[in-house]
Fold this protein.
Amino acid sequence: MSTAMGTGGKPPGRMRRLARRLRFEPIGWVRTVPWKEVVYVGVPLLLAALAVVWIARTYMKPSLPKHVVFGGGPPGSAYAAFGAAYGKVLARERVRLDVQESAGGRENYRRLREDENRIDVGLVRGGIGEIEEAPHLVSLGVVGYEALWVFCRGRQILDDLPGLRGKTIAIGGKGAGMRRMVRTLLAANGIDEGEFEAVEIGGIEAAEALLTNKADCAFLMEPPESGLLKALIYSESAQLVDFSRRVDAYTKLMPALHKVVLPEGANDMPGNRPPRPVTLLAAQTQLLARDDLHPAVQMLLMQAATEVHGGIGLFQDEREFPSPRVLEFPLSDDAKRYYTSGRPFLQRYLPFWAANLVDRMLVFLIPALALLFPLVRILPPLYAWTVRRRIYRWYGELMFIENEMRRPLTEGETRNFGERLDWIEQEVNDLHTPLSFANQVYLLRQHIDFVQHKLEVSTEGGEMPTPPRAGADAEG
């Protein structure tokens, strides 16, 4: 009794059934998945996709820099304020803008041109630099006007510059780009270097020299809202030069200059300062960059310029800047696209980092797809062939057995085809294929049965069976 019950008092049959129940066997649809074919075809495709991503990130376009050096201006200047505003816009996209102090546009131009202590982008006034000496620089557009304020000591109102011969003139501090402009204006009026005394000071120092009789005239470039300008406009001992009489001649002779008008009362409406409209000359400020600056950063900077400079101002209309005007340096290709089409298409719908990655990948994927498309068309037939190959290989075994059955036995020869057919049948029963190939598996099993039956008949000497038809079996 104990022997019949087995260990633990349970019949062996129940134990086997329980073991089968607890055994984790694959469900039907999983067993039909051709895992070998999936691995053979899917893994190479996955590796190819990863290779495409890696090549795109590494070789096609340089990765987006996380640090960009920007040439600003002296502390408290408009250039410095603009640089800080640009930095906030780029920071939203996780790009750090390192705004570095400089003496002004001329120093920014020098650092853009040279490799030592270089900057990537900076504000440079029109009229500074030439394309021949810096062919690697490109413009991202004009971002605003910088009015030239000329104050002269005394109560006499000047309407031009010829009266400055023999005067002491504050022409701007060392490194300031305004000094070249001042000399050009004076030379256009026939005032040579030896006919005036140049004092290399600017800003507050120039205003103090003018108000303390240490200079007869001062050339300044300050924002209209500057308290320094308001102090000079209110001063009874200094007068603002009005260029209205020959402003058109100046702008024709010097394309970097532009005509702007300071409206009456613009600086102080209650006090009506200035007491009359004043025509001024203004330089145009451009955003210059090295031509190797990343295209995505160029687009970011132009978007920042639109946000910072796109509003209405004393000398500009709303959305007048940034502008694609060309001064000394050509527009970059990315700047041309921005002014023509606006923000890149991908950046309108994707985060900046994702749009940049997709853009870099497209450069590689377009030619890659042209090569991969024919290969992809080969994959379905190749996949079908790999599955059919596992089925068709057994037909070779069946044909061998049939051919051997027709050959007469030699003396002493024996055959064991029955065991061989049983082995083939077992192997086919363990064959796992996709459901779309199930009809071919069942047809193979019918053919195995046909050969087995034929072997039995040939052994017993009966009538040979008719082989199953593939079409009829498929229809059934």
Summary: The chain has a mean pLDDT of 80. Residues 60 and 363 are 7 Å apart (CA to CA). The first strand starts at residue 67 and ends at 71.
